Predict the structure.
Amino acid sequence: MNGNAVLDIRDLKVSFSVRRAGRKYQVRAVDGVSLSLAEGEVLGIVGESGCGKTTVGRSIVGLVRPDSGTISFKGTDMTGASLRDMRLNIRMVFQDPYASLNPRRTIGDSVAEAGDINGFFTSRAGRSAAIAATLTAVGLDPSFAARYPYELSGGQRQRAGIARTILPSPSIVIADEPVSALDVSVQAQVLNLMMDLREQLRLSMLFISHDLGVIGQISNRVAVMYMGRIVEQAATRTVLDDPRHPYTRSLVAAIPKPDPSKRILGAIETGEPPSLFKRPRGCAYAPRCPIASDRCQVEVPELRSAGTDGRAIACHNV
Amino acid sequence: MSRDGAILWLKPFIARPIALLGLGILLGTMLAATFAPWLAPYDPYAIDPSIRLTPPNALHWFGTDQFGRDTLSRVIHSARMALLIGSGVVVFALATGVPIGVLSALFPRLGHLLMRMVDVLMAFPSLLLALGLIVVLGPSVANAILAIGLGYMTTTTRIVYGLTLRLRMETYVEASRSMGAGTAWLIGKHILPNLVSPLLVQASFVFAFAQLGAASLDFLGLGAPPEIPSWGNMLAESRTFITRAPWLLFFPGMMIVATAFSLNLVGDALRDRLDPRFRQLFSEKG
Amino acid sequence: MLSVRDLTVSLGPETAPVDIVAGVSFELGKGEILGLVGESGCGKSMTSLAVMGLLPQPGPRIRAGRVLLEGCDVTQLQPWQRVEAGRGRMAMIFQEPMTSLNPVRRIGDQIAEAVRVHDRLSGPPAIDRARELLEQVRMPDPAMQLSAYPHQLSGGQRQRVMIAIALACRPQVLIADEPTTALDVTIQVQVLGLLRELCNRLDMAMLFITHDMGVIAQLADRVSVMYAGRIVETAGVEALFGRPRHHYTRGLMDCMPSRNSGARRLPTIAGQPPAPGTVGAGCVFASRCAAVRETCRTAAPPRAEVSRGHDVLCAFPLDGGEPR
């Protein structure tokens, strides 16, 4: 276990029971994920739909019960426990700004909710002052506290959502695709805000996204997930400039670059991820992998260290 | 509620004039019920055999019945019974339906059990159910409210169950849970406030149908005691005199129809107010 | 092939119309891919619906302008009227294939339905043609998948089905409204490659609508940038990315967190787009433009051709002196 890790996850496994055509199936969404978040760091988790990244985030804030594994906050194991102080220290920003605020509550009430639930405020005046200060910190006028969500734009709602996450100020913020539903110009504003807040409040962040461009902008390190496992983990620049795992390479190559002279269409034919109901034996990426060998079909590769720069890869052939 | 909010509530009524008519009838009925002793020209219980069965005329706008009682006064006083039964049924349906529905949705195993019991109740036609209960409990106003209310409790429960199941999945509820909210907080701050609007619409419809249920029970002599004027009672008494004094049938019957009709109109208008497309005119979605 | 001239789509009463699309013009030649790019609310989807004849009734309507398909005016014709008039060779694909496909019918039947309308085939010949179309869109195992239901297919496969349905009428013009936005990036690249290949092979023109500049760079031959219902810049794709001339285009490109920017903070475009109906005289972008001048707020900007095939709706376009 990492010494100064503010969040440490070991071998997390989460599955869901799903009903299809009358039968119950157990779907393994997270299949043994281990990572640690150092204080003040932004760790990006990137992957496509179904890879389990959202489930990891939700397990950390207690929305989902893991099957096994441990989640430790500052050295204390909190798996399965719903300790109230943990709730204030680890908070989540949600993806959809149109769905994450109760339409019938004022912005102020929504922003102060964490404090209200956990008895943080000692007086009405104190509460109002805290709301006003937090709204200002996220770039919203304090008068917004009396408004309702339908009066705000998407970008403004997301700012309100962020305000809700930092009142009172937490240690860790789990950001689950916080800018994916926003326009590009608004994305930039909100990302800048998050970076500013991270500095001001000395936050540690777990930034979940499918967008490598955004991850590249905001995170220090990146973990790439596929079918419930981490396949590569390294410093952000390393992953983007020199991806080693075959999946990471296809992911990086598939990003549409805004440069017409670098066209990749048609050059990549990578098939589709298998259904979560029918996990392949062995490495989950083997069916699509250009360098798969016989060993890959039967043996799941473990995430092991590869090089001195903190890089880790889960592949037999790299 | 802000000024904009108040205007929003009136818009569906202004947009459809017939809804205003409904609102007018409803308000009229409530006025009649409240101020009956002052509005009614005569004492509804006063008997005067000398003027029995007179058709509508200048002195008695709605005519008189077989005992010489003024029909208009009786119609006005009946509004009290109508409102009493209506509100009683609505309160009963909400007070039972909401807790059962919400708890069933939040606690699935308990929920399955409760919803099956509700299903059993729903299998009975509501009037038969009411009749059965009255036979067991005995006719009285309170029992009428209970009997009719039980039927509407089932539909209310169903609606609340479905809504709560959906609300439970909303992102803002998840956000609340991630901050440590317990079930009580979720119910109080997120679920109930979002149930208010659909339940308001439901309440108006229940109110309307409760009138019909009450009138049916009264007609059969199983509801309000015959001395107390109610539209159903008046209808029952008018049976013998249909050919001779049709006004005795017409006026109470018209009031039953008008009240139920107006409540339906108001309910429709309220539902329009709550229609998400309506609200979208005021919201900014990308 | 497709010519849109001064298209204006409005909401609201005749006396006080609110323009959500204002004076949009573009041309699309055979086999060409025109990218229509803009952020949400800029009117690009509404433009595509208007061109296709699919504006929801009642509601927005074409107040002015013309849509010409192969020289014939189809502006006021709905799709079925166009088919009857022999001008129905324009097809559209949408963003969410799950809602565009009927969940209770097999996809083979859904494709065959399109075939029946356009080729007047039915029964086995229609199914054959459906299978042929699935092959054209590179669906793995086409014969088997004919009997699949939409929920049994993945997002990328459903999108291929939708393209197959669109191809049933042998379209001269394909309108694609954000077809890959909901897809994973590795699937997106395959579907985009398919679309490019189909346009080349079938000499089909495509109007591709998106908010993603990266996708545009990969796919389009020419690009039109939309803002607040107006086209602010049109250029060949290399010219647009190499030397953007409109301030909004430049701002949009600058604030993308592209892989190569290592900057601490992203440049942004201050403010928000104007709501439809609140646009006054003068340039729509004036309130947010970094290089705004007094005249921009009062006088409507001219459409200037800054070089061959490159025009800008701006009184003071960027001089294009800094190649990127």
Q: What stands out?
A: Residues 183-219 of chain B form the longest helix (37 residues). Chain B touches chain C through two residues (CB under 8 Å). Residues 277-286 of chain B have pLDDT under 50 and may be disordered. Chain B has eleven helices and no strands.
